[in-house]
């Protein structure tokens, strides 16, 4: 036997050649997937001619480089990449042409009134708005009648109709009618938007497989119907993506803690469900190719159960990659499988190239496949292998997705790895028990409820982790969404992926860093100089909504409106050290003023709750009453005359006194019924106007002639619909506008801001300054301090 010393350089080269060839083969499919993705992005963001030219020029450039290098394999790879990019581009163009030039699209551009015959392709989803509750559902239109003509088509539309649509099952063939409109730019795959849709008339019931899937979904809900509300909502969300009953506050906590993937259909769901079926099959001595058949049937069943929407098909593809990764030589096979899944999905649905969900699924799967094994092996040198893997998987997925998540949410979760680690032991049992409860419940309801109880216990822990994690002082870090900020974050993530295997190999480095991370997220960091001494009014930055606080004394604040997000208003009150709320005023019941109510009530002693007399919209009214009752208070109408709450004297001056009444459901009426307050604190007079509109403003001008205040809360986020003479007549030194950055309403109006500024009023906005504080000056005036500007 020859020794190493006897081996020639040629022998070494021969030994290395298979490895180099294997590496090139491993990289070939990801490169092809990247090319397909580039073709999809070109189709979405470039004109057709420009997209074709870009793909052609890029392909020819790469082909020229490959030919110069003189490697036939590279030439073949470039040709294949060019072919795939062109294929995805062509698929996108053909689909866009078929939809955009269909008779339905033509009728939508004309704003025609039409009648449809079509099949429901998505579950109806409630849409809450200030203008009344509606239901949204996607419809595959087979026949359209418009402008006196009948057309046979096969194009998708989005239907907005009344709540009668909520009971229609997926797969049903229905007739309906309404007015067509052109969908916005974010719905490029739709031929039209049907507004004011009439109640559907079912022509044909869903096919057998849809009825079976619907029965299982209903059985899953029934198996946990006896459990607390969070568990009733989370089990269906975890098993089949049915998140319709999920509490918005809990949903926000899931986003903050990086657990949102548990409430949506993801590859993890499929991996758990099909993996469980494979385990059962092995117990039943199923072997060989029959196991493949079980897996295929399980995947098909999961898709039917979770619905055949693009997000579900994407999840099924990524879950299949996860299953492949569990087998022998899994890492290499999974890498190739992920690339194949990306190519196939983009060829079938080119618009996925611009889908945030598709990007996140691909990045998370790639992180788990490519990064997690190395991190696990590094930590396994000083940790049990199971614990190392439990830490590596969510960590790798989180790092891979962080730049995209930050671009979408403006936040970087600092607790995502920890929360995912804490819930990982119960995700599998919850999913399996929830599915088993639904299946068994079809035969025996009591046994189904027993299994559902076990699933409920598991998701109860998940909900507790989400709520606790979101309440940590630094659960998430605000991050800019501009190109520079995201480039810096991406560079940090790349550096982390390179350094992680080295750092994680040493307990002496990893443990201190972990301790520092825990301290940073759990110990409140001081904000020097905030709140400023002697502050009288705070306007919280809660996005597109209102939340204001009047300083009622140490640890106490009169809160006016709660904004749209519980976490945002809760954080603002924490920063102001408000522990008691002697009075909470909800000026009206629109979501941007009341949806954050839980953030005010949670953990704080609350006295009175005042609301407007117009009980509209009804669903929001019911939510406010229920949440207030849970906190031990009953909403009432404002007291007549002036009332004192600590250091605050407040008087409701609008609407006119009267009993509670139901509203018509239109936004303007509810806005104009906003509670308007005149408050005084620390010698500063404040006018708080809610969203009152010009008719109400004119009535106030007549009722309160000569009103003079120091601070004006500009009505309705600075909307252009104002009674400007009245706003100017109050001679405010300072005007505050609570408004969300880059909102779609054009708030605040430039005309309104200019008019106030020209009159000598200083205007401050939360979208530019963050939280705002009004502080008295020694000369009898006021100044405004900004926390974020």
UniProtKB/TrEMBL annotation:
The main location is membrane
Protein localization: Cell membrane
Checking InterPro entries in the record gives: ComA-like_MBL, ComEC_N, Competence_DNA_uptake, Metallo-B-lactamas, RibonucZ/Hydroxyglut_hydro
**Chain ranges of the Metallo-beta-lactamase domain:** 544-741
What keywords does the record list, in alphabetical order? Answer: Cell membrane, Membrane, Transmembrane, Transmembrane helix
Origin superkingdom = Bacteria
The way this protein sits in the membrane is described as: Multi-pass membrane protein
Membrane-spanning residues where?
A: 34-63, 75-94, 259-281, 288-306, 312-328, 335-352, 387-408, 414-440, 483-504
A Pfam short name: Lactamase_B
Q: Which PANTHER family match?
A: DNA INTERNALIZATION/COMPETENCE PROTEIN COMEC/REC2, RECOMBINATION PROTEIN 2
Q: What's the protein called, per UniProt?
A: ComEC/Rec2 family competence protein
Source organism (scientific name) = Nocardioides plantarum
Instruction: Give the organism's phylogenetic lineage.
Output: Bacteria, Bacillati, Actinomycetota, Actinomycetes, Propionibacteriales
């Amino acid at each position: 036997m020859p020794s190493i010393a006897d081996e020639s350089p040629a022998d070494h080269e021969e030994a290395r050649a298979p490895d180099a060839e294997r590496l090139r083969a491993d990289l070939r499919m990801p490169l092809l997937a990247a090319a397909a993705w580039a073709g999809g992005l070109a189709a979405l963001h470039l004109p057709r001619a420009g997209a074709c030219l870009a793909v052609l020029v890029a392909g020819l450039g790469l082909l020229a480089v490959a030919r110069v290098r003189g490697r036939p394999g590279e030439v073949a790879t470039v040709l294949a990449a060019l072919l795939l990019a062109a294929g995805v581009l062509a698929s996108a163009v053909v689909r866009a042409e078929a939809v955009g030039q269909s008779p339905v699209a033509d009728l939508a551009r004309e704003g025609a009134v039409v009648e449809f015959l079509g099949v429901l392709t998505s579950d109806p989803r409630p849409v809450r708005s200030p203008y009344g509750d509606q239901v949204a559902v996607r419809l595959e239109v087979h026949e359209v009648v418009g402008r006196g003509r009948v057309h046979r088509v096969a194009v998708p539309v989005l239907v907005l109709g009344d709540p009668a649509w909520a009971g229609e099952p997926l797969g049903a063939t229905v007739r309906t009618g309404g007015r067509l409109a052109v969908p916005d730019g974010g719905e490029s795959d739709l031929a039209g938007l049907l507004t004011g849709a009439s109640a559907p008339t079912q022509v044909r019931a869903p096919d057998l497989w849809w009825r079976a899937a619907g029965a299982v979904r209903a059985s899953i809900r029934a198996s946990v119907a006896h459990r607390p509300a969070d568990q009733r909502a989370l089990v269906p969300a975890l098993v089949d993506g049915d998140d319709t009953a999920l509490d918005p506050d809990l949903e926000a906590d899931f986003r903050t803690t990086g657990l949102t993937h548990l409430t949506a259909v993801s590859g993890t769901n499929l991996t758990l469900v099909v993996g469980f079926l494979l385990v059962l099959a092995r117990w039943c001595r199923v072997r060989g190719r029959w196991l493949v058949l079980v897996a295929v049937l399980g995947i098909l069943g999961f898709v039917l159960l979770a619905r055949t929407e693009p997000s579900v098909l994407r999840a099924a593809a990524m879950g299949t990659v996860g299953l492949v990764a569990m087998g022998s030589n899994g890492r290499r096979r999974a890498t190739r499988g992920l690339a194949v899944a990306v190519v196939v999905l983009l060829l079938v649905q080119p618009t996925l190239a611009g889908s945030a969900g598709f990007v996140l699924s691909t990045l998370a799967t790639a992180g788990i496949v490519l990064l997690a094994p190395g991190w696990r092996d590094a930590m396994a040198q000083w940790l049990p292998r199971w614990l190392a893997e439990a830490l590596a998987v969510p960590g790798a997925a989180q790092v891979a997705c962080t730049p995209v998540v930050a671009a979408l949410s403006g936040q970087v979760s600092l607790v995502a790895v920890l929360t995912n680690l804490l819930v990982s032991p119960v995700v599998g049992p919850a999913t399996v028990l929830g599915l088993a409860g639904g299946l068994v419940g079809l035969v025996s309801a009591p046994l189904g409820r027993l299994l559902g109880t076990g699933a409920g216990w598991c998701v109860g822990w998940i909900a507790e982790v989400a709520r606790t994690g979101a309440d940590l002082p630094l659960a998430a870090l605000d991050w800019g969404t501009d190109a520079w900020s995201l480039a810096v974050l991406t560079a940090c993530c790349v550096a982390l992926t390179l350094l992680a295997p080295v750092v994680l190999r040493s307990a002496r480095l990893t443990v201190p860093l972990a301790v520092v991370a825990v301290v940073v997220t759990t110990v409140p960091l001081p904000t020097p100089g905030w709140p400023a001494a002697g502050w009288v009014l705070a306007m919280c930055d809660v996005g597109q909504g209102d939340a204001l606080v009047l300083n009622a004394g140490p640890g106490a604040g009169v809160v006016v409106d709660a904004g749209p997000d519980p976490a945002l208003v809760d954080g603002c009150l924490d920063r102001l050290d408000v522990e008691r709320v002697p009075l909470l005023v909800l000026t009206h019941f629109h979501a941007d003023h009341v949806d954050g109510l839980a953030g005010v009530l949670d953990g704080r002693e609350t006295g009175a709750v005042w609301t407007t007399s117009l009980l509209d919209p009804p669903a929001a009214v019911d939510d406010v009453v229920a949440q207030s009752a849970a906190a031990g208070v009953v909403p009432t109408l404002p007291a007549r005359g002036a009332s004192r709450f600590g250091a605050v004297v407040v008087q409701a001056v609008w609407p006119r006194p009267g009993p509670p009444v139901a509203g018509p459901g239109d936004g303007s009426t509810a806005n104009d019924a906003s509670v308007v307050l005149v408050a005084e604190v620390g010698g500063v007079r404040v006018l708080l106007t809610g969203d009152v509109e010009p008719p109400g403003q004119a009535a106030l001008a007549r009722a309160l002639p000569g009103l003079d205040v120091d601070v004006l809360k500009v009505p309705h986020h600075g909307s252009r619909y104002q009674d400007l003479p009245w706003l100017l007549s109050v001679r405010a030194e300072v005007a505050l506008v609570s408004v969300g950055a880059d909102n779609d309403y054009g708030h605040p109006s430039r005309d309104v801001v200019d008019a106030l500024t020209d009159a000598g009023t200083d205007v401050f906005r939360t979208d530019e300054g963050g939280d705002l504080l009004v502080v008295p000056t020694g000369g009898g005036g006021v100044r405004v301090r900004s926390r974020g500007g």
